[in-house]
Every structure is written in structure tokens, then in C-alpha cells.
Design brief:
By secondary structure, this protein is of the alpha/beta class. The chain folds into 2 domains: 6-33 and 283-399, Lyase, Ornithine Decarboxylase, Chain A, domain 1; 63-277, Alpha-Beta Barrel (TIM Barrel), CATH 3.20.20. It contains 10 helices and 22 strands. Helix 6 links the parallel strand 8 and strand 9.
Length: 400
Amino acid sequence: MTWAGNRDGELTVGGIPIGRLAARAGSTPFFAYDRDLVTRRVASVRAALPVGVELSYAVKANPMPALLQHLSGLVDGFDVASAGELRHALDTPVPAARIGFAGPGKTAGELTQAVAAGVTVELESETELARVRAIGAALGVPARIAIRVNPDFTVRGSGMRLGGGPQQFGIDAERVPEVLARLGGDVDFQGFHVFAGSQNLRADHICEAQRRTVDLVLGLADVSPPIRYLNLGGGFGIPYSQRDRPLDLAPIGENLARLMDERVTPLLPDARVVIELGRYLVGEAGVYVTRVVDRKESRGTTFVVVDGGMHHQLAASGNLGQVIRRNYPMAVATRMGQPADAPVTVVGRLCTPLDLLGDRVELPKAEIGDLVVVFQAGAYGLTASPTAFLSHPAPVEILV
């Protein structure tokens, strides 16, 4: 997706000039998400996926309630990782049976809410099985469960590894048969969830992971009850810098079609097969908008100081899992199309040198009062950031 919209040199989001959006938001900084871009991204994924593969949205990427309501009409289900996300998901038209609850360390209260609601609890440990079994008995409702499997392989090219080796996520693949043997008839077993890595821009690596996931699950099928649910994970990445190349969906769709035709459908005819995506669906549809409050020179470096920062956009500051910090794409939203001036360093107003949004970035000359936008801000932005740091007000989020 490309943010090409501008009107008379001013960036537009959802067709609305950024200055007008700032007035609508009431203050800066704020997040703005373009619903049309989300719709188009979901459509492109749908077009690439073969018949029989469903699409689920990972709510942790962006749990804004209005966004979830919009997505509820576009995707087949939601994946949540907390009771708060679960409540938001249940407020949408998505049926509880199409909601999966994953994540380590679920509390007794969260498990009770999940079992009572009828969502699928994706077990992250052997002890979690005992807890949901007891909760189901107390409620008189068999718990819907799936087993999250920690695979015996790793995914090349992932920005963050969520499977392979020792992990807090899932049950080690070699221990799963023992857990399956203890299921009994007092739980409603659905199937398996395997999510091995995230933020991957290599289609060949994703295809390899999907093939190995299918191999793993088919091996487990020999010792499991009938499999009605198979979550193949996701991990589709988006570009964050000029050197990143957008992910090519075509080979992924072709690989999935072969897997479905040759292996999954013949051997697991009752399985609902799901691809789970978060960042890929919403990440490029959002901008973080912040206003220049100062401009200063310090020993040869020009600092542009804005009223936002890492307390809202931790990932853009490089402090959310980046090994080597890279600048997110940025623009002076009120000076689109103007030539770049000398490089500047864009910083927030927190009392820490970590509050860095852009290091020596080439932008048109930004003056006090100008609006600066950080792109690729639709996922892992506000709710993945230390919003209470220095007690600044929370930013507004708007869906346009």
C-alpha cells in the first residue's frame, strides 16, 4: 500500500487533508487509520488464498474497537491474547466459535471468561488443560480447546521467533502426543495452532514453514481425535525501510493451494484451515501524526522536536525488538512534494535519549507548527508503547 494521497502539498488520509483531520482529532499527536486501505489489503489476501483457507485477524496488532467492528465484516475470525481483547472481539458480530484465545499465562479468571463465552482456548501448557477442564466442569460447559504446538523447527527470516527451541509459547511438539492421550471426553477438542515466527518478508521462508507445519500436524493426527481446526499461523511482514521489499503473496497462495489439494483436504477433510494475520492487514493502513514544537541546533545536528514520541510509537523508536535500529518512513505532512533539506533528527519530548523517531532523516524543512507523520503505524503502535511514561495525555485514534 502506498500513501500517495495529497492535496495541494498536504497529505490526505482517507481522502481528508491531514490538517483537517488534526482539527477533527482535537489535538496532536494522534493515530489515523484508513478503512479503505484495510479493506483493500484484506481483499488482496483473500484473492491470494485458495478456496478452503480462512482468514483470521490477530487483535494484538491493533485492538481499536472501531477497527475491529470494520474488520468483523471482512475476516472469518479473531485471535485474542487477553481478556480485554476478548471482550472487544465479543462485542463484534464475529461468533464466539470463530475466536481463538492464545497466549501464555492465562489466569483462572481469563480462562473462565473464555470457556463461558464458548471461544477456543489455545492451550499453551499442560497445566492449562487441567485448569480449563476444571472450569468447564464447574460451569457445566465442555471447554473448546486447541493445542498450540511449539514446533521442532524454526522459521528462517522471521523478525521475531515464536516457535522452535525452548519457548514460553505452546507445548513442545514431542510432548503433544502425551497431552492428547489425556484429553478425555470432557473437553471439546478442535485441533492445533502452530505459529512459528512473525514479520517475515520472504515468501519462500513462509512457504517452507507452512509445509513443515502441515507435516507436523499430519504426524500428530495419527494420535489425536478428529481435527476440526488448523491454525497455520501467519508471520507475513510489511516493509519498514527502503531496503525492505514487499512480500509477494502469489507463491504463498500457490503453495497453500498445493498443500490443501494434495495433503490437508484428503487427510483432514473436516479441518477448518486458518491463516492468522495482524500486522499485514492493518500495519500499512495507519499513520502517527505529531506536531513540531521546537527546532534546535546542537553541535552540528539539527533536532526537530515533536509533541509525540516513543510513549506512543515505541516500535518506531527502535525499542521494540529491533536489533539494528532503522527509521520508519516519515514525511512533513504539510509540505508534501517539497525537496528535502539537510538531514534532521526527529525526537520526542520525553526525558530520555531513547525518544528518537527519526535519525538523520531527509525531510523538507519542518518549522514549528508543521505536522510530521510516521507511516506504517497501524500495528503495534499505541497499545505496544509505554503510554504512561512522563504522564503525557493519551493520543486520539480515529478511523476514516
